[in-house]
Amino acid sequence: MNILLLGGTGDALQLARQLDPRTIYSLAGLGRVPQDLPCRVRVGGFGGAVGLAGFIRAEHIGLVFDATHPYAAQISANAAHACAQTGVAYWALRRPAWQAGPGDDWREVGDWADLTRALQAFRRPLFTSGREPLAHLDEIPPQQHWLVRCLDPHPGNARAQILGVRGPFTMDGERALMQQHDIDVIVSKNSGGSATEAKLAVARELGLPVLMQQRPTLPAATRQFFDLASAAQALLATQNRP
User: Fold this and answer.
1) Tens of pLDDT along 55-112?
2) Rg of the chain over all Cα atoms, to the nearest angstrom
3) Cα gap 140→137, rounded to integer Å
4) Closest by CA position to 202, among listed 188, 215, 223
5) DSSP 129
6) Among residues 70, 66, 61, which one has the least CA distance to residue 79?
7) Residue 169 · residue 145 · CB < 8 Å
8) What domains does the chain contain, in order, with CATH numbers?
9) What global pTM score does this model have?
């Protein structure tokens, strides 16, 4: 069976490494493109749900597997719609969200305006929420200095430093980063998974609040998986089906 694997996450890359050339691994192209995969790699958008449906038909795709980021709501919506149009199964890996525990000071925020209001009480935020802050570097209040961590390098300015680095991150590394930059609040998406969870443990240890951005609502899938091992097992079994 030809499989379209929608990726861009560490989980998706682990799946792609196990699948053969009947699988097309699709990336938006915002980060590094792996060169050593046994499956095919496609980079770029599809042109919405209609374009994706056309691609599914042209490539004789029998299964679309959504392993995109939990906050990549638009591509997930397009995939669900395209699969409904073409009658193709739509499976998804839905990484469980992190849960606040004793000692955590998590404050849920919604859109950018909501986040900006919540940040007014702080001076030195650490953004670990992707590329969105890069579009607002000219709006930084005079009392604040931002430290923005995202996947790829980007120019900062007098009030912002950009770190282009990739996880996984360790407790020691996160602690050193926060203390070196005198961080007083963490901005995070509730992505789940272990690769970037250390920042939350360090925030708890240092007594730092976390502004946690709400998860978007994602479409229902024909089958949903909540851990990487079961997703890999199901994909391999499907790929090898006569």
Assistant:
1) 999 999 999 999 999 999 999 999 999 999 999 999 999 989 999 999 999 999 999 9
2) 19
3) 6
4) 188
5) S
6) 66
7) no
8) 2-96+216-239 (3.40.50.11190), 106-213 (3.40.50)
9) 0.85
**Are the C-beta atoms of 164 and 154 separated by less than 8 Å?**
yes
Upstream peptide bond of 38 is cis (omega within 30 degrees of 0): no
- For residues 177, 228, 85, 71, the Cα torsion angle rounded to the nearest 10 degrees is -20
Tokens 């890999």 belong to which residue? 232
Closest CA to 3 of 13, 14, 11, 16: 16
**Cβ within 8 Å of residue 161, ≥6 positions away:** 145, 146, 147, 148, 181
CA distances from 142 to 59, 115, 138 (A): 52, 17, 11
> Tokens for 109?
């925020």
Q: How is residue 17 written in tokens?
A: 């490494």
Closest CA to 125 of 103, 135, 104, 140: 140
Q: What is the DSSP letter of 152?
A: S
